[in-house]
Amino acid sequence: MHTMKRNRIAVIGLGRFGQALATEAQKNSIEVLAIDRNESLVNDIADQVSEAIIADCTNPKAISAIDWQQFSTVIVAIGSDIKNSMMAVILLQEAGVKNLWCKVQDRYHAALVSRMGVQKVISPEEEMGRRAGRHLRHPDMLQQMQLTENQYVAEIKIVNIVEQRSFMSTIKSQDLILLAIKLKKQTEFEMAREIPSRFYPGDKVLVMSRTREGFTWPTLLS
C-alpha cells in the first residue's frame, strides 16, 4: 500500500477545467494522476502530468483498482454530467477518500454534493462571475486567491505615484498584511523586507486580507 503524499493529487475528468487544473498543478510541483474514460483526452495530457490513465470512475471495479490513499486530494471534475459526478463521489467516499473536491454544474449540483460531505465544492462559472464583479470595482486588482477560510491574497497594480507613508497608512487602515513587492523594473516579486520611499505606476504588491471584502482600496491607490 502506498503512503499518502502531500503533493500528489488525482484529477478525474479531463474536460477544459480538469485539464487546466491538472497541468497547472503539475507546473507547481504537484504530482498529478489524470483520469478519464476518453482515450483521446488521456493521450492529450499524458506528457504534461506525472501519470495519465484511462478509467471509468463511475465503475466500482475501476475505483477499486486504484490505491486512493496515496493522494492528498482527489478532484472530481466531471461537471457536465451530474449523475456520473455523484456516482464517482459515492464510490470514492466508499473507497475511503478523505479530502474530496468536486466541480459542479449548478447550484442544484452543488447542494447535492455538499450534503454528501464533499470537502470542497468548485463552481468555476460562479467564481469567474465573482472575479469579474470584483474587477469592475477594483480594476487595479490583477488576481485574488483564497488560501484558507479567512485568508485572501491579492496581486494589486499601483496606478498612481504613492508615497511610502500614504501607502503604509492604507495598509494599516485596511488591516492588510504586505507580503511582497515587485517594482516595475524587476522581473519577480521579492519579500517586503524594505518598503520603497515611493511607488510608481506599474509597480505591484501582494497583500493578504482576512476577508474577501478587505480589499477596499481608496482613490489613493486606484
UniProtKB/TrEMBL annotation:
GO terms for biological process: potassium ion transport. Residues 6-122 form the RCK N-terminal domain. InterPro entries: NAD(P)-bd_dom_sf, RCK_N, Trk_Ktr_HKT_K-transport. SUPFAM superfamilies: NAD(P)-binding Rossmann-fold domains. It comes from the Bacteria. This is TrkA family potassium uptake protein.
